[in-house]
Specification:
Shape: globular
CATH superfamily: ANL, N-terminal domain
CATH class: Alpha Beta
Distance between the termini: 11 Å
Oligomer: single chain
Number of domains: 1
Helix content: 25-40%
Largest sheet: 6 strands, mixed
CATH architecture: 3-Layer(aba) Sandwich
Number of strands: 15
Number of helices: 9
Strand order of the largest sheet: 2-1-13-12-14-15
Radius of gyration: 18 Å
Amino acid sequence: MRRPVLAGGLRRGMSTAETMVGETSVTQRLLGTAAARDGHVALLGGPADVPGSGPGLSYPDLAVTLQRAAAGLAWRGVRPRDVVGVHVADALSYALACHAIRAAGAVPSPVAPGLQVPEIAGQLADCGARMLITSGSLAAAGLAAADRSWVRQVISFGEAAGAMPFGSLLGLGSMRPTPVRAHDIALLPYLRRGDGTLGPSAVTHLEITAELLRLGAQAGVREQDVVLAAPPSGDGCAYTSLLDHVLLHGATVVAVPAAGDLAAAAREHQATAAIAAFGTEIAVSPALRLLAIEG
């Protein structure tokens, strides 16, 4: 995640990433470009009752949804620099959750897939999260972990007894994303340490922007691309960067329920690339460009 990006010729030794951040987060940049992509689908797939299912969520509608969700989070008590857990099962829910949290000025803390309830609870307690955003298939574990932590509110994509639906956030007004500073924390993943325990590894807005600059030079995603996205994997660093990169370049992200469904989804949507774990094989012709998640 923290690969250096070289830049020259900028005043006072500023890096390109520092110049780009200023007081602007990735979420603000995404919202700023959304209006110019009218009619172009940003997100497709996910649970049936989630915005973006069916015909898909256009870029302008994505911007409206995120600003409304941010207002809903603020109304429910989320404040700038608060940490909100994200434990969801698909790319569409992940993108909406992380960007809504960022738009509210808070920090998403992705929960790695496959963790058992005690470790989920430990992460939520350690980062001080008072809210968790989850999705139907993971909601039972999320609610159980919430009961063992400081979490007092659970928001869910899809049906989940005991959780508030994500849609309940969208009727409480609209909120412009809050300004950020380059060294503010933008993401709080937890990594597996050498002793087997989980520990926080904060990522700043500056580091995310530097990684997106690197991806811009290497990944070659264009507005015309249709990019399949397998469910969240890894610690969240690479997954977050790849989703942000694709959306900032105006391509369409198709959330795929499982890695085994990628080939069928590629044929159905005429996909050109896929976000999936390193080494994933997708049996289609022509071959998809793999935007690999390492680790």
